[in-house]
Amino acid sequence: MSSTTIAHQTRNGATETFEEMKIRLMEDINSLVSNSFEPCFRLPQQLEEEEHFLDCVTYGNLLAQGVNRDDGGRGFSLVSRARYLTSRMEYLNGVLLKISAGFSWRINTGHQRIQRLGAVCGLAALPPEILANIFSFVVYGFPSDELRSCISVQLSHVCRHFRDVVISNPHFWTEIQTTPRKPEIGLVEACVQRSKNCPLDIDLNLYTSAVDVALEPGAALPDGIPVMEQRVECDGVLPILIPHIHRWRSLHLEYNKADGFSGSTELFESIQGSLFPMLQLIEEFQNHAGGENFDRSMAYASTWNTPLLTTLILADCLPRSLLSVTSITKFHVLLFSLNDAVKMLDLLGGMQSVSNLLINVSYFYFFVDGEEMEANLVAHKVVVLENVKDFEFCFGSMHAANADRYFLRTFLSKLHVPNAINVFMKGLKTKVRDNSVRRSEGRLRLHQLLSGIAAGSPKIANLDISVERNPTRLNTVLPRHFPPGLEDLKFTCNSNLQFFQKELDAQDGVPELGKLRTLTLGVNSECDTSAVKRWVPWLVSRLKLCGGWGSFEELVLFEYDVDLEDYVFEETIPRDDILGWCKCYDGAPLKDGYESYRSDV
């Protein structure tokens, strides 16, 4: 139904169309606005006259005028007029409230705009040196999914003063990142130009695909399987950066599946044998893209001269082609196979300058390597890295809880870091391939992994052990082997906890905990953690035997938050209250219907 056909009955019984009613309403609103400048509130003249007339009606006048009814029979005429007047005022008030609500939202937005623009104007009044420091924090002060150079571009578009500060400061343009397949060539060129002679941090996208290797006619396929090799392409960013290799400070190689992308295959040929005087870091993430036939030895850098290279962060590749690894001080590596682990031990022997070492084997697939690699690992000589101060070892919780734990223990036994101060042991939820077979997962006995670390690294002062299990009903046995110099112990686990004091025998000995100062414990209240009230008193008894109880300070408790998938602070228990706290600690699972997973594996 159109608006022109809508009718409304007036007090006189006549009807008015929607358009007539809208015109009358606009006249009423105009009258209200005009009257708002008067000292007191006044209705539009027609409504005010009607209101005055109805207010003058008395009982006597009503009898004198009779009690005639409207033709429609809806009620007495005066009552109908009063109702109509009230309806008009209510409708008019509703329209005004709707207008007011719209203004309220815009007024609030306006206040926020004033504050934002006021802050901008206040910042614009600051000296360029201070503005540059503030912008530096905005661009680099916190993690961001947005490209750093894009943040710089946004800052340069606020006002002319901001633009002058941002563009004239080369440090805002030193990080070059582009999106895969559709790089912002103009932005890259602007960064190269505006960064002047400052060092560049480069994220370079590479595109990989598998292609068949052409064999001579009549040649037999090895094992009946076609031979594949890796094809690597690049986009238009690399040619822009090659003339500035003397400014490369860090190189992050991001490998992406080509998926039909067609670019240049002439990668790094023009810079073979070149000098990279500023290059300090190389990061390469292969993501297990192509198997053993693909080049994962960093062959592109085999002739590079990198006198300042100190950091390697690698995934599924090893620096077997680098000219030298003796200057590397920070080495982080993610490995997928036992075969790579054996090769890495060979490389680590030449990295005697490493002080920060991270090895992640949580993606290991032991069953693909065969008995030969297992034998090679067992026969490998021990690698000693005396300069390592920070050591982090990430393993799959599933591997540590099934038959694969033997290989984890063997691997750790082949790597000694005798002077390590800070050690992190992380049991991660295992990532299993779709085409793999998950082995049965049972009880995770941490002491079987930690015994070698505790004995081989006596100078550890800070030990952080974290375990993630899936499902959380699986059982994890609390550790009982600790290095003698330990000062701060942190243990967090999201699963059931167990502690078997009867298993402690003479061969375990008494852990030397005379220097322990703090114990940080993170538990999951939805699991069975009652073993804590036996494990903590056992630690206290060892502290007292070693004479360290007097210097021990506190127990800090954290609670696992399932929604955050992280631990939140719960409480701090002073030394003298710890044993009393243990007596009151329940540890029973709080989750309704929770069933503990029983396993003696």
From TrEMBL:
<dbReference type="Pfam" id="PF12937">
    <property type="entry name" value="F-box-like"/>
</dbReference>
<dbReference type="InterPro" id="IPR001810">
    <property type="entry name" value="F-box_dom"/>
</dbReference>
<feature type="domain" description="F-box">
    <location>
        <begin position="124"/>
        <end position="176"/>
    </location>
</feature>
<protein>
    <recommendedName>
        <fullName>F-box domain-containing protein</fullName>
    </recommendedName>
</protein>
<dbReference type="InterPro" id="IPR036047">
    <property type="entry name" value="F-box-like_dom_sf"/>
</dbReference>
